[in-house]
Amino acid sequence: MFNPKPTSKVVSFTLILLISLTFIHSTPTDQQDADDIDDLLALDEQEDNQPSQKPSSEADVLTKAQRIVLELNNDNTQKAIDGNEYVFVLGYAPWDVRSAELMPRFAEAAGCLNELNSHVLMAKVDAERYPKIASSLGVKGYPTLLLFVNGTSRPYTGGFSSEEIVIWVRKKTGTPIIRINSVDEANDFLKKHSMFAVGLFDKFEGPDYGEFVKAATTDNEVQFVETCTSQIAGILFPDVKSTSPVLGLVKSEPERYTSYEDAFEKDKILQFLDDNKFPLVTVLTEVNSVKVYASDKLQVYVFAEADEFDKLLEPFQTAARTFKSKIMFVFVDIKDDNLAKPFLTLFGREDSEDTLVTAFDYKTGAKYLLESDLTPSNIEEFGSGLLKGILPQFYKSQAIPDNKGADILTIVGKTFDDLVLSSSKNIVLEIHTPWCLNCETTTKQVEKLAKHFKGLENLVFAKIDASVNEHPKLEVEDYPTLLFYPASNKSNPIKLPTKSSSKDLAILINKYLKEPAHEEQHVTKDEL
Ligand SMILES: *[C@@H]1O[C@H](CO)[C@@H](O)[C@H](O)[C@H]1NC(C)=O
Ligand SMILES: *[C@@H]1O[C@H](CO)[C@@H](O)[C@H](O)[C@H]1NC(C)=O
């Protein structure tokens, strides 16, 4: 049950304080009528811990939201699922950090949906306390969100803020679009929403409108609104042209208004949203990270301190305009370890606070580093090189070491070509990392072997630390790995067994020194 889903690459602890709020004491109940959502009080699994605690006012609000979330148990689950057209279920574990982050947002969404008179029963199941119930519902990890429609579940595909949860649930339960009927409603809507798609139609019918509705239902995160008066449309989307139908996307940033210019077809509308929904430069947060990582666009990441980023925002916005819909630009606060560290490690910069501009092509797994000054033209060149696929890929390398007099050569990313692939010698290469379990034993063996073979002109012993050095021709999964590169053919190194004795290794190396390499590929320890 440890499968992390949704898959946030990084875990945040910032919301851990809210754990205490999500388990606020509330009145335990017996079985209740599942049709009456308001009467379904959450059972509190921790009631014994805080028997007489007076809730604070903030806690009051959450308790109220909690109350409209049904706590599923052995008695009420079947009735709840069978007796309601829509049930939205959160599967969680009390100790799970990401469950704890999501629960207050889920509760807030439940409160909001309740106010909107949504016909969705919001429910949660403690998968640790009721493992059978959880697994019968299809909860396979923490946290899991599932929407049951007439008893059949579908996975959650929306965002993870409370607002995004509300939008998604409404989309999938019969209210994909909010209709705005008056100027007041429009102004009110603007106060609550900063990002939405607005449609202006003469009548709410016909093929164009049908495609608009289909797009609103299929999309997972953008709130759609509709109106049939251009006055109201003009409040929401000042760029509105007089001829309907009109579709526009509104965001809270410099590129606030984007007009849709194409034919009203569901797939084209969805593509338009996909190309335009992110800001010019997206600031990465715990909440939007899942969405950002899910994008398969080329991505340029800027790692900088917030002050520094303020200065860089404009040139990057300019670049983002140039590469709109093709490259996503993302800013990460370099001081936010949870978000920044995993990326910085990829570039060997985990201990640096200097501004770093990188790029990723998730389709090929390639990573790139902008090494020139951050001038607008260099940024633009970086973007266009990325787009054309002509940027040199980044490989980590330590500084070139002095190997003078060394029995065992230290190889780094930058010297792998010269000292291994282009060398005229046979090479025995040890690939190690600082944290690997058996590397030390192998290192000692290699030292012994180097001594044993000392003076042999055509054989060189070498080692490389794979945690800080990379090369496209060096792809190893286990550490330590010992490779024999025959002088005659460097393209197919032979794997040496790391678990045999030094003596056996010496015999093997002698054999390879005499025999043509291609007959002896991929020797494993089983063959010894
Ligand atoms: C759920 O079932 C009811 C009763 O059969 C039906 O009227 C309703 O349309 C169904 N809802 C969905 C979303 O299929
Ligand atoms: C080197 O080994 C590879 C893989 O077995 C083989 O395809 C290639 O022909 C060899 N090259 C030479 C020069 O023997």
TrEMBL record:
Protein source organism = Ambrosia artemisiifolia (Common ragweed)
The record's Gene3D superfamilies line, in alphabetical order, gives:
Glutaredoxin (3.40.30.10)
Q: What is its main location?
A: endoplasmic reticulum
In the record, biological process GO terms are: protein folding; response to endoplasmic reticulum stress
Where does the record place it?
Answer: Endoplasmic reticulum lumen
Q: By what name is this protein known?
A: protein disulfide-isomerase
Q: Which residues form the Thioredoxin domain?
A: 59-174, 385-528
Q: Which reaction does it catalyse?
A: Catalyzes the rearrangement of -S-S- bonds in proteins
